[in-house]
Amino acid sequence: MSFKPSDHLSLNKPIATDGKPEIARYCFYDKDLFIYRPFRTLEEVFLYFPTEKSRKFLQSVLVNTGGTIENGVITGGTNEEYWWKDNYTNQGLVLKNITSTIVETEEIVGETPIGLIDGSNTDFISLFNFIPESLIVIVNGLTMKNFDDYMNIGTQLIRLNFSMQIGENIIINYKKQ
Prior knowledge:
Elements: E1 28-30, E2 35-37, H1 42-48, E3 60-65, E4 68-70, E5 73-75, E6 78-84, E7 93-95, E8 101-102, E9 107-111, E10 123-125, E11 136-139, E12 142-143, E13 150-153, E14 157-160, E15 170-175
Antiparallel strand pairs: 1-2, 3-6, 4-5, 6-7, 8-9, 9-15, 10-14, 11-12, 11-15, 13-14
């Protein structure tokens, strides 16, 4: 199941210069359920991006290992962010260092979720599964309200009720599941 730009065009996601939606560069798009999710395995990444033309140097790819998938939602497991070291080989994916702060109580503090800030994207993905009630979303220093300003979909996807402009920032705090 490789990447097909036509699967994404109806979602009005920003399109990169090579014709692929930006959000689809780091997540798998399930065209039957109309959702983005982390890749389940590195093999799934290589099937989704089969050629060097579909890979971008230093592009981030989110992979969940050990989780289970039901109705397109991954539960459990560990999310890790990889980068393409080069465009040509399957050995080109390297593990990226995680930049969020992990506190002993399994709280994630000050994580910048994965997602574009480009004036049209509204979806952001946390590095780890979170306990939904614990999620705190902070945009430009202001704490957002659940349902009024954002919705969490599953235990990793945060959908803002507005799009952020270039130069704005978002951080999230939560308890890991």
